[in-house]
Amino acid sequence: MSVIHRQIRQDMQKLIDQLSTHDLPAVKAVDQVWEDLNQLQLQYQIEIAHLRFQDETDQLNETITIKNRGTLIADLSGWTIEAGSPHQIYTFPEHSLLHPHQQFVVHTSGEHTHSFQFHHPIWNNRGDLATLKNHQGDVVCYWAYGQHAHSDVVISRIKADGHEGRGEGDEFIEIVNISEHIVDLSDWQVTSVRNQTTFTFPPGSKLRPGASLKIFTDKTTLAENEYSFNSHRALWNNQGGGAELIDYLGCMVSVYQY
Question: 150-257 maps to which CATH number?
Answer without folding.
Answer: 2.60.40.1260
